[in-house]
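Chains adopt folds. We examine one example:
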Amino acid sequence: MQQNEDLAPWAELSGPNLAYVLEVYDEYLKDANSVTDAYRSYFEKWGPPPDTAWQPLQVPGQAGVSSEAPSAGAAQIAGAAQTAAVDITKVSLAQELARNLREYGHLAARTNPLKEETNPVAVLEMAHYGLSEAELSNMPASYVWHDAPSAVSTALDAVRRLKQLYTQSLAFDFAHVDNSEEAEWLRQRVEMSEGSEKLSEADQRDLLNQLIHVDELEKFLQRAFVGQKRFSIEGVDMLVPMLDRLITEAVASGAKSVMMGMAHRGRLNTLAHILGKPYETIFSEFHTSVNKELVPSEGSMGINYGWSGDVKYHLGARRDVKEAGVREAHLVLANNPSHLEFVNPVVEGFARAEQDDRSHGGQPTQDANQSLAIVVHGDAAFPGEGIVAETLNLSGLDAYQTGGTIHIIANNQLGFTADADEGRSTRYASDLARGFEIPIVHVSADDPEACIAAVLFAHAYRQQFHKDFLIDLVGYRRWGHNEMDDPMPTQPSMYTKINGHPSVRQIYSQILQSADIVSEEETKHMAEQVQKKLQEAHQKVKREEESQEEEEFGEIIEEQAPKTGVSLEVLKEINEALLTRPSDFTVYNKLQRVLERRRKAFDDDKIDWAHAEALAFGSILTEGTPIRMTGQDSERGTFSQRHLVLHDAKTGLRYSPLEHLDKAKVSFALHNSPLSEAAVIGFEYGYGVQARDALVLWEAQFGDFSNAGQVIIDQFIASGMAKWKQPSGLVMLLPHGYEGQGPEHSSARLERYLQLSAEHNWRVVNPTSAAQYFHLLRSQAVMQRTLPRPLIVMTPKSLLRNQQVVSSREALTEGSFQPVLMDNATVENTDSVTRLVLSSGKVGVDFSAALREYEGGVPAWIAAARLEQIYPFPWEHLKQLQDRYPNLEEVFWMQEEPANMGSWFFVEPRLKELFGENIPVYYSGRSEQSSPAEGSANVHKSRQGRLMDQTLAAEHPAGGYDRRD
């Protein structure tokens, strides 16, 4: 604290700092030992603060006070014109009051439409600080508000004005924003623009007209389709005008697309009035819904036939808009299942795909102004579902950020039948966002102009800082959880209020009529016009049921796979580029030896898994398909196999050779992901849906980690095409294989993907050679440009370095991916074969080794083959295999997964159908288990050996295992 040995440490202090020293001195006078040693020594050396410091502060211009340049201690009050002395302690208390008004004003704000009065907050009242109006009137405004408007002259004026600004129906929750530049911008935005935007009379009429459209649609649906679910917007009607204004602002600022996600509530109104979905289309979906009396009430009512394949309040839409004074833009409302918030990362992926320019080599160039993401949340789901936190965590990461998402909580103050205090541990539904330093405003859904001010505030912040912003739109729910649900048994007090509460349309109409902006007759005319449009649309709707014939996705994959070989000359050129780096770049010495082996791989004619992958990526890029790959530790590879991103051993700088391919005219992006599955998989799914030109891959650190993303897999990846006609070519790389490492990280849960397989919705593969993986990736790039389908790949762990899976140059330059692969250890005398052993994945490689080690050589009566593609099931390829062995007597299916896992339950009926009654199909493997694998490496080794032995045994018991527990 001391600046000069000739001056007391407090000589240049003023304001609150000097007041603090005075308080310490008071404590010192009472008990010298009650203060710190430092302060005690100061007071002993310098004595009390100077007498002048004890006097009330005086203001230049006051009688007897010089009006020359003020001293350092008086600098804060220079220019003020007061006639009374000011107590420094009171100044400090007034400053604390002003600070608390800014920080905690939202606690007393009028943001809840169902509460007429707000709870008193002590720290926002003068009495709490022992301050009087007279004392505050004696202080200049600059004491508590350094840049107060000119109309605010005294501290009392300032406190009153600040209280008005921070406790209105638009409340500000910014104290958690630590960045000083952002915090100051937010403060000035509130205090300099007075926290609101003034609408013109024309804008006010337009806003009322929007609210009438919103309200009349809901009322019409209630009358016309009694008892059918629609998840009405009533209570948060302002959501539609807010979205409309936000989109207008975004497009006017240069956005070429707006990507939106929301749950059910308000979706039909949003589809109609934001996405432009015709009323008659919405009405037709009600007419063609399944008989409600025959369908359980939860979730499934209203299913439509054919491609729609989902309930009407799950469906999204796309629309191109071009309005006067506004640029043309593309609007998207994402399809969303009942897993509410899981659409969030999908929408973020949509937006990032639109922002990335992939038309050049290297990493894509992002322009956040190209697309805006808007996500509408539920007040119970926002704090309740972990996917929200996972997605918010993406907002600041280079690989995933979208330049600021606007979040709106459509706050009904209820979750189904649960009150807020039953659904969250925080005061506000929005509090989760505090941890990510996202600014928050709370606004009453009954104050239309405050709601518009909120979205203008949000958009301005996003444009300024390219960060997320959250609007907590506090309203209510006019009906129950759905229109069939009676909420009175669980919230009688709340719904008594709601039943007598006017709609926001009625409230705003009265406000504008009172201000002579619209007349009652004009309001009635607006409503009549909307009612007429709704009636006309309803009359157009045909009453017949839609055709129940289902469209087929078409036969794919089973047909001849595309030729995906690459010339040796091109492969060598790519390989050389992969091994080229700047001359001053230092590679870690152990890694250098790994990379040098790749230089010699073509001469040795041994190309391993990771090398084949790199070559596949390079060839795909040179052929014009951009690549985006993310995953947990994917830059290096979980098993230290990939090394497509290098780090300088001296500087740590990053270098990726695939970003510098001379012949690559499209982008390559490879990123490590956060430790998240659901949000990251959802993001990559969304990116791939929107970026139809790109090959998008996600890799799990271990395959079983995908468990945490199961909702995205079930509801989007597996079924998105059937439900929403939404194609995706996402590749999921899932390390899978039993190496004695215990029940975790052995199984990628192959059985789950097979259970979800139908209608050619994706490919599920388990490749066992570097060349197979090479051709698989290249075939996926070809399909991405024609008929994309997701690709689920069980990738290896120990096989990454197993010499049995390395491939020759010729295997890469010729041919294509093979759904069925013959074991090269199998004897060539096909007439002698009586047993065919089929398997998939690593266990087939283990069996190949066992055949080679078999005493007396490979048995002449056994042939082995591996299903590299399990779905779509390779019927024709297996039929050709059956025809190859005319004396076949039995077929074994061998797997290392327990019988109730892996592929057995999927392949068993198909194999039996294929081979017929005369050739029995047996199971060879572990019995049914609740856990995927043994916890002991020794036990694993023993059982794996027994599996090989029983498959090679001359006699095999029918049934294969005992299903009894």
About this structure: The first strand starts at residue 170 and ends at 173. The radius of gyration is 35 Å. Residues 201-224 form the longest helix (24 residues). Residues 820-952 form a domain with the Rossmann fold fold (CATH 3.40.50.11610).
